[in-house]
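User: Working on a comparison across species. This one is DUF427 domain-containing protein from Mesorhizobium album. Can you predict its structure so I can line it up against the others?
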Amino acid sequence: MDKRANPAPGFQRNPDKVITIEPYRGTVTVSAGDTVIARSTRARLLSEPPYPAVFYIPFADIDFGKLARTEHSTHCPYKGDATYWSVLSAGETGKNAMWAYEQPFDEMTEIRDHGAFYASKVTVEAKPG
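Assistant: Here's the predicted structure for DUF427 domain-containing protein from Mesorhizobium album:
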């Protein structure tokens, strides 16, 4: 997490909260059944203990034709406001399956224009490169 003296407005500083973002060396594929929604060799791995690590995939590597934006949103005091998309082919299970921080806090710009998926709603497969 960025340690700037002047954090972005709304950004919550917490010295006990360590968030790391690093490039994933390999291929990440997201699918619902036989339908591939995203495939990337440019994913970033975000670690935010105690939560499981999450892959953030560049928008350019996501097939938005297989998604529908929803009205759902959430707020994270460390990343900003998240918007959500549903995976069309997954039906009710795919509701709000992908989220993104389209305008994250300055401290989290590495995940701007990247989407993350709930592994409980779709299949997220990572193969080291």
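For your comparison, note: The longest strand covers residues 67-76.

User: Helpful, thanks.
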